[in-house]
Design brief:
The protein is an alpha+beta fold. The chain has four helices and eight strands, in the order H-H-H-H-E-E-E-E-E-E-E-E. Helix content is 29%, strand content 30%.
Length: 154
């Protein structure tokens, strides 16, 4: 973690963030390092990249990699984690973050999930479709239409 911190601080000070991938990747690293205000600022920038046409090229198409990176600030990883039977699941390790919870949503396994992360809790619910199994902090949990709230460890 210390090596990650040194690298983040070295490169962040030298990065112009003109690449559409830069803000979302920096938000993920900042969140992992506990730099929550920086993480939030980078996430907001990445989320608004195409909506506000920051790079003046939205007419050429959206920056889907930048948009997907916004979920990383929530601690969502789109790795497929297999259980003992070999079934694959999404992995989630939500980060503690201050300020207003930033909601997001995504489709997976035929379901639309809504996710919101605050300083102490992560809340997920299926908005449309069937329940989804997610590995949260290494434990398999079911996300349903009734919702799933998880306390974020310190």
């Amino acid at each position: 973690m210390e090596e990650k911190r040194r690298n983040y601080e070295f490169y962040e000070a030298r990065t112009s963030h003109e690449s559409s991938l830069s803000p979302s990747l920096h938000s993920i690293l900042a969140a992992e390092l506990g730099k929550l205000e920086e993480a939030y600022q980078f996430t907001a920038y990445a989320a608004r990249l195409d909506l506000d046409n920051y790079n003046r090229n939205t007419e050429q198409g959206i920056h889907s990699s930048s948009a997907a990176g916004v979920w990383g600030e929530h601690g969502l990883r789109f790795r497929r984690v297999a259980d003992r039977r070999g079934d694959a699941h999404l992995q989630s390790e939500p980060f503690r973050r201050g300020g207003t919870p930033m909601p997001s949503g995504f489709f997976t396994a035929g379901a639309l999930l809504a996710v919101s992360v605050s300083l102490t809790r992560s809340y997920s619910e299926v908005v449309e479709g069937n329940s989804v199994t997610v590995s949260i902090y290494g434990h398999l949990r079911q996300v349903t239409a009734e919702g799933l709230e998880v306390v974020i460890p310190r």
